[in-house]
Specification:
Length: 238
């Protein structure tokens, strides 16, 4: 017996798939996961998020579909010269993330958000635009950050910290490394590559320095609006 890598259910060695979550538990699959742990983090996070929300069948169908999608994405990353590569919208982000180039990934993410929100010349989102920002887009971006960072980065990670910090911005900043020993960090001071504190990226509520905010709103206000999109325990959220 060995536990399913996704849901932890004990599986016999000769079983092909996990009876609970449907994950492929063959030795080949386990070997592939060891080489590509982002699949594992991604699958787990999806499983946890879906666990309480939908029926088993629906859950399995979605998991399979998402994993299939992820395989497709992964293939595109593996063969970047493939013509279909440019068809995938998030390829640049996935590439930056796979290189642990958080700064470039963050810049791309921010541009993408401005573009999706259709803010025109403006370089920030109004609270109402944050509230109405498309859930699907938010989810797609967050899942990429989360899976490529092996569960260390992304808004759902920040949301956990935010709700644990009871919405105290300075406490949140100390924990994600936006403030260090009482000093509010500038964008250039961040851990732009490789190891970074949990929840360090992406940056939504500020762009220049963590105490400033953007567009006439304080960083604390803006973060509060964004984190409202990721309610505690993810109920109804992503
Ligand atoms: Zn399972």
């Amino acid at each position: 017996m060995s536990p399913c890598p996704i849901c932890g259910t004990d599986c016999q060695e000769d079983w092909l798939s996990c009876p609970r979550c449907g994950w492929d538990v063959t030795p080949e699959s386990r070997g592939a996961i060891a080489e590509n742990p982002s699949h594992l983090y991604w699958g787990r996070s999806l499983w946890q998020r879906l666990d309480q929300e939908v029926t088993l069948n629906r859950r399995l169908a979605m998991l399979e579909q998402r994993l299939f999608d992820l395989e497709q994405r992964q293939q595109m990353l593996t063969w970047p010269t493939q013509p279909s590569d440019s068809d995938w919208l998030y390829s640049p982000l996935a590439t930056y993330l796979s290189q642990q180039n958080w700064r470039e990934a963050d810049g791309w993410t921010w541009q993408r958000i401005l573009e999706v929100a259709q803010v025109g010349e403006r370089l920030w989102l109004e609270p109402e635009e944050i509230a109405n920002f498309p859930q699907q887009e938010l989810q797609a971006l967050d899942e990429l950050w989360y899976s490529y960072s092996q569960g260390a980065l992304g808004w759902s990670v920040q949301a956990d910290i935010w709700w644990e910090s009871a919405g105290q911005y300075s406490q949140f900043c100390d924990r994600v490394g936006w403030r260090s020993q009482g000093t509010w960090l500038y964008y250039d001071d961040l851990y732009s590559q490789g190891d970074a504190p949990r929840g360090h990226f992406p940056i939504l509520p500020w762009r220049k320095r963590s105490c400033y905010g953007v567009g006439g709103f304080t960083a604390a206000e803006l973060l509060d609006h964004w984190m409202a999109r990721f309610p505690p325990s993810h109920d109804g959220g992503i």
